[in-house]
Amino acid sequence: MISINFMSSVKITRKIYGIAGALLILAIPYFIMLHNDNGHIETTQSLCPFKMLTGFPCPGCGITKSLIFLYEGNFSKSIYYHLFGPFTFLFCVIAIFVLKIELITKRDYFQKFLYSKKLAYFLGTTLAIYHLTRIIFFVSMNNLDDILRQSIWK
Q: I need a surface site. Which of 25, 64, 79, 116 has the fewest CB within 10 A?
């Protein structure tokens, strides 16, 4: 039988990891933005392994650039690079706030909502539809040579 103290410490550890992960998601684009000399972010090759192998964007491609332009105050470019960039920012800020409050008060506030299958299906379906739409536009705007040029198989 697992002790209550062990389960409690596992929950605390997961919340700390959640805060650290959200901080990293917010900090990495910020530091990239600080070193964005001459606006090279828009012209550099993506570091996405999926895009490097196939030439096609993955569902998460563009979120880092989206966050960078959000930090610079360019909301339209942020949405252009990834529709969910601003939502990622909001989610991370809210997650940091809520997880800190949960650690301080030792209570779970959004446990039922965040671990809902309905929410997971909704978010997964929304991301899949968005990605399918992006792929259709990507293929219609690029020929095979352009797609290969965006991969490592140039």
A: 116
Q: What is the DSSP string of 37-99?
A: GGGGGGTSPP--HHHHHHSSPPTTTTHHHHHHHHHTT-HHHHHHH-TTHHHHHHHHHHHHHHH
In whole angstroms, what is the distance from residue 141 CA to residue 43 CA?
17
Q: Could you report how far apart the first and last alpha carbons of the chain are, in Å?
A: 57
User: Rounded to an integer, what distance in angstroms lies between the CA atom of residue 113 and that of residue 19?
Assistant: 18
Please state the domain extents for the chain: 4-37+46-149
| Burial environment of residue 88 by CB neighbours within 10 A (0 to 12, 13 to 18, 19 or more) | buried
114-137 pLDDT tens trace:
778 999 999 999 999 999 999 999
pLDDT at 106 over 80: yes
State the pTM of this model: 0.84
How far is Cα 21 from Cα 27, in angstroms, rounded to an integer?
Answer: 10
